[in-house]
């Protein structure tokens, strides 16, 4: 995506029947282009900023427009925003027309014929970033806000859009920059500032920022789950009650339940919300050696769901001793984030939690449940939330974007190297180099140090018109 100074246009609302549709125009010639299409009481060029204008969108006829051959496209209300008081800090026009696909497409076509260019995905927000109205964390929050699937995800996207994360990072950057400036001054003017050693208060300042970054990153897994959702397949051997537990967690009969092993052939998925996370549960076929080709297809789907799961819920029949099939599944789950559900607890317990931890690991939560009676379901939901990174008392500002988490992890590592170098009395140049590396990495998050390739990757994920 190349930064250009032309005028762009796009439909800003979703396709399909609706009460209204909005077509957006931005750029130096936005008002001129819109005036070519809009017919109202006054021209937009002569109107002040932040005003609304009722009229008609038309496609002017070729040649003179005095002959009345201009074609009406739709009745519209035009919102006029003059630079720099607009979304992009350019002149912006938004034409609101009737919903549905036809009106908006016809108006967009007329605007393109009048000299606008079709906007690329995310180009309006890209221009807002390039013109300095928002930083890169705020720009990415626009997309997160549009795709938020839960209230908590929506609230966090709003917080980031309001600049909360950017301001938090700016405060850290300022402290690191102060530390780097003092170290560099001691290197360049050792006689004037009392030597080249890195003073204790600078080391303490670097350590404090390193610690605060660690706290910010501690909830990154939960933040990512909030932003992207989580997939949780229910796996286990046949007839352990996966479908019954799936239905119990949903609170409705979504999967077929029979006493016959192998009833579930296809994967059935439904979403629930846990701790603000949209969790997609998947009931899968029992894992065993397939008895027929159809069951083999279902088991293949179950295997793929297991591989793609954020967390895996292993369902075990707790009323029977562990079978070889259970142990084979446990081997497959080693190293994964797992919650074990000891189902059928209403029939007595013949499997102890310690047996599950022996085959999976000591940190695996094991929850006795009864899908038939609903016993243990709150504890199972709590264990699953914990496995997804949720904690009691949700963090105010978790890092939700994997790109941010990766970059801030590198910044923290650079600060750690700077601290270690200072404590080892290494040359100040080395400490300063590591601090500058941390500042560069902070800039990748906020947008102060970002290349065109990265901008292309970020904004290509946006919808056209935003």
TrEMBL record:
Residues 229-389 form the TrmE-type G domain. CDD domains: trmE, TrmE_N. It is an enzyme of class 3 (hydrolase). Mg(2+) binds at residues 243, 264. Binds 1 potassium ion per subunit. The keyword Secreted does not apply. Transmembrane segments: none annotated. (6S)-5-formyl-5,6,7,8-tetrahydrofolate binds at residues 24, 94, 133, 466. One of its GO terms (biological process) is tRNA wobble uridine modification. InterPro entries: G_TrmE, GTP-bd, GTP-bd_TrmE_N, GTPase_MnmE, MnmE_dom2, MnmE_helical, P-loop_NTPase, Small_GTP-bd. GO terms for cellular component: cytosol. Signal peptide: none annotated. Keywords: Cytoplasm, GTP-binding, Hydrolase, Magnesium, Metal-binding, Nucleotide-binding, Potassium, tRNA processing. Its EC number is 3.6.-.-. Its cofactor is K(+). Its main location: cytoplasm. It comes from the Bacteria. GO terms for molecular function: GTP binding; GTPase activity; identical protein binding; metal ion binding. Belongs to the TRAFAC class TrmE-Era-EngA-EngB-Septin-like GTPase superfamily. TrmE GTPase family. Homodimer. Heterotetramer of two MnmE and two MnmG subunits. Exhibits a very high intrinsic GTPase hydrolysis rate. Involved in the addition of a carboxymethylaminomethyl (cmnm) group at the wobble position (U34) of certain tRNAs, forming tRNA-cmnm(5)s(2)U34. PANTHER family: TRNA MODIFICATION GTPASE GTPBP3 (PTHR42714), TRNA MODIFICATION GTPASE GTPBP3, MITOCHONDRIAL (PTHR42714:SF2). This is tRNA modification GTPase MnmE. It comes from Eiseniibacteriota bacterium.
């Amino acid at each position: 995506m190349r930064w250009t100074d032309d005028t762009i246009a796009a439909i800003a609302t979703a396709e399909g029947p609706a009460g209204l549709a909005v077509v957006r125009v931005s750029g130096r010639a936005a008002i001129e282009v819109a005036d070519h299409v809009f017919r109202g009481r006054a021209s937009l060029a002569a109107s002040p900023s932040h005003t609304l204008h009722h009229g008609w969108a038309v496609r002017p006829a070729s040649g003179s427009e005095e002959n009345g051959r201009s074609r009406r496209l739709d009745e519209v209300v035009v919102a006029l925003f003059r630079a720099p008081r607009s979304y992009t800090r350019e002149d912006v026009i938004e034409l609101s027309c009737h919903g549905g696909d036809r009106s908006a497409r016809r108006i967009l076509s007329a605007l393109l014929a009048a000299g606008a260019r079709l906007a690329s995905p995310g180009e309006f927000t890209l221009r807002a970033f390039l013109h300095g109205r928002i930083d890169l964390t705020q720009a990415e929050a626009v997309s997160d806000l549009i795709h938020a699937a839960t209230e908590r995800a929506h609230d966090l996207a709003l917080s980031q859009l309001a600049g909360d994360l950017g301001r938090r990072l700016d405060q850290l950057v300022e402290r690191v920059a102060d530390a780097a400036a003092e170290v560099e001054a001691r290197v360049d003017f050792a006689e004037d500032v009392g030597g080249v050693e890195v003073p204790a208060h600078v080391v303490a300042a670097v350590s404090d920022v390193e610690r605060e970054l660690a706290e910010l990153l501690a909830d990154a897994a939960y933040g990512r789950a909030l932003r992207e959702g989580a997939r949780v397949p229910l796996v286990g051997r046949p007839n352990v009650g996966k479908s019954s537990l799936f239905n119990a967690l949903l609170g409705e009969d979504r999967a077929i339940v029979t006493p016959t092993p192998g009833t579930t052939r296809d994967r059935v998925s439904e979403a629930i919300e846990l701790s603000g996370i949209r969790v997609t549960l998947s009931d899968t076929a029992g894992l065993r050696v397939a008895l027929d080709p159809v069951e083999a297809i279902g088991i293949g789907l179950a295997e793929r769901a297991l591989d793609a799961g954020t967390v895996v819920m292993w369902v075990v029949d707790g009323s029977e001793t562990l079978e070889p099939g259970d142990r084979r599944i446990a081997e497959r789950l080693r190293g994964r984030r797992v919650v074990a559900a000891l189902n059928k607890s209403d029939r007595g317990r013949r499997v102890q939690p310690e047996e599950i931890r022996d085959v999976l690991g000591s940190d695996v939560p094991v929850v006795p449940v009864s899908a038939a009676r609903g016993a243990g379901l709150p504890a199972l939901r709590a264990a699953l939330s914990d496995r997804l990174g949720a904690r009691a008392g949700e963090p105010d500002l978790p890092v939700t974007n994997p790109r941010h988490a990766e970059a801030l992890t590198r910044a923290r590592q650079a600060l750690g190297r700077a601290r270690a170098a200072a404590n080892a009395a290494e040359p100040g140049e080395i400490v300063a180099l590591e601090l500058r590396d941390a500042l560069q990495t902070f800039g990748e998050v906020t947008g102060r140090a970002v290349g065109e390739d990265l901008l292309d990757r970020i904004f290509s994920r946006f919808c056209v018109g935003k």
